[in-house]
Amino acid sequence: MTAAPDNADPRDPVLWHGHAQALATRDALRETVLAAHYDDDAAQLLVLAAERAALASLDAGAAAGAVLAAALREGAACGGAAALCAARTEGQAELGLDDGRTRVFRAGGRAGMSGPRWALATAMASSAGDGVVLEVLTHPAAVAACQEGAQTADPFWTPYCVGLAALYRGDAAAGTLLQAAMQALHAPPRIADATQLAELRRPVLQLALQLAQADAPADAPAAGAAGDAAGDATGDATGDAAAEVASDALLLALQAHARYHGAGPGRGEALGLLAFELGGLCAWAQRAGHPLAAQPAALAALLPPVLPPRDAALVYRFAPRRILHDGEPHWFLDLQGFPRAGRRHVVGERDGVLQAIYEAQGAPGLPPSRVAFALPDASAALGSPGAPGAPAPPPWPLALDATALRGLLHSGTAQAHAEAEPLQQALVRYGVEHVGEAASTESTGRNGGGATAPAGNAQAMAMASAALICAEAMPLLQALVGAQGAALAAQLRPRPEDYAAVFRPEVAAAARQAFDAVWDAAPPHPARAAAGARITCHAAPAGMLADENALSRPFPGGYRVLAALLQPRRVWLAWKVIAPGRNAGMAYDGLVWLDDRWAWFPKPYRVMAALLKT
């Protein structure tokens, strides 16, 4: 290839006159990779998607725009899948393609990722507006997993990726981390081309640093740039001035990109047709409310309009697991960081084994996820059907939780009475059989034994909900009186923000002060339970604790007065641990459900006694 003039265009029509054939070649390579199964498939598809997007950008029209947008989405999702596979040791990432196919990538190894590929995937996710993939890619575990060893990569790549990830995540330390990345570029590269660092990597960091400064709170200390190259940031600009400085940094970065890919070593590289990393940063700035003063036409393809909502293309599937207890699925998902709110599951049969398939989302660094739990046969727990004196095992496994059992009972799955009856019996394990009795008592008391009134229906629904909430909490209550009870109880200490969610605004601060004193002096925890002890549980929303009713009756009387200080919609628990052969037991209360976790406010009517007297 002949030398190009200094002002050559990376998108020179003469250079790229055969781009249609080049795009067709990438499409064919994509099909080849999709049909194969190698460890680095997701990373290879990421690069091919980026090249396809870049080549499609050379054409005008809606069709080319659709190809470009689809390639951006696919490349981002493939990068997220590769990062997941690199960061996880089991399970698989599943990618839904636009044509309806699903591609599976097995976890384990480094999955072909590297610092440059991570930066490319993250930029594409930002341009595509894929927040799920961006969360996956910028999670610290994924950033670390995508780095290469010292034998194949220069040491600047880790701080480079860490700084960019911090910016995309909105980390307050982003400016400091980006400044550290700038300093890391001072070391002479051993592997990377020095020209590439000067023309591509340093300008990206300079722009990112200015965007971090523009995004910083007004009273935050300025994070200065490295200041060793033309166009380095001043570090003290704020507001509109910071946006102007960032715009200048963007123009300088685009000029450097054009030099490298138009007249420098990168001339003729398909990935040089678009400044992906600069476009990703500009897309982030736009979403963060810091649009740059001027958006160059060269980045228009990387700043698409907001796309309509669509189902998540990337899903993580954990390796299947066997469980023996109904609480184990929730324990597992808790440990993975999934909030309890929004979880759902279905029960079905696969290869003769009944499975509970859970879906959850919201865990740090994970896309929407699924995990299948193989349910044990009830006969294993109840004894062989032919054993003398052994009860006939129900056809439904003992490990189904209350929600799943109730769902099976009402979904039409258990159509015959012979199947429905054992389900009803299984619900007895959770105390749910008392719901109908309590609801009936309420209805009779209020309506003189006649037809159930609407209020009675509402009471019955409240009783049913309370019973199911207790069923969901039972694994936690059992663990609290187990060997690790004290350590688990310590994790239930209310966080500072919990008090406003549980107590009325006028007493939240005083409640925090009172409970902090309790937890600081002697962290509460239930006593270790004897073997065979049973637990009874009662739940009620705070709004029903003020009056005498079926839900408030099991709670200590102090809650009647305390209820006026509580947020009425929060659900509270009271429970007893009863030793074998006894009718009475140790009473506890004060667990509160906070949308995604429990917090413990033990004996609040005592802890807040001073407030109740005022």
Q: Care to describe what's here?
A:
The chain has helices at residues 19-35, 41-56, 62-87, 115-128, 131-138, 140-145, 157-169, 174-184, 194-215, 239-263, 276-287, 328-336, 378-382, 402-411, 417-428, 433-447, 454-480, 485-491, 498-502, 505-521, 558-562, 604-607, 609-613; strands at residues 92-96, 102-106, 314-317, 321-322, 344-350, 353-360, 369-374, 534-541, 571-578, 586-593, 598-600. The chain is α+β, with helices and mostly antiparallel strands and 614 residues long. It has three domains: 14-217 and 242-301, no CATH class; 318-378; 453-611, no CATH class. Strands 1, 2, 3, 4, 5, 6 and 7 form a seven-stranded mixed sheet that branches. The protein has a four-stranded antiparallel sheet with strand order 8-9-10-11.
Question: Can you give me a brief rundown of this structure?
Answer:
The protein has 23 helices and eleven strands. It has 614 residues and is an alpha+beta fold. Strand 5 and strand 6 (353-360) form a beta hairpin.
Total strands: the figure is 11
What fraction strand? 5-15%
Proportion of residues in helical segments: 40-55%
- As for the number of domains, it is 3
How large is the radius of gyration? Answer: 30 Å
What's the tally of helices?
23
What structural class results from the helix and strand content? Answer: alpha+beta
Unreliably modeled segments: 222-237, 378-458
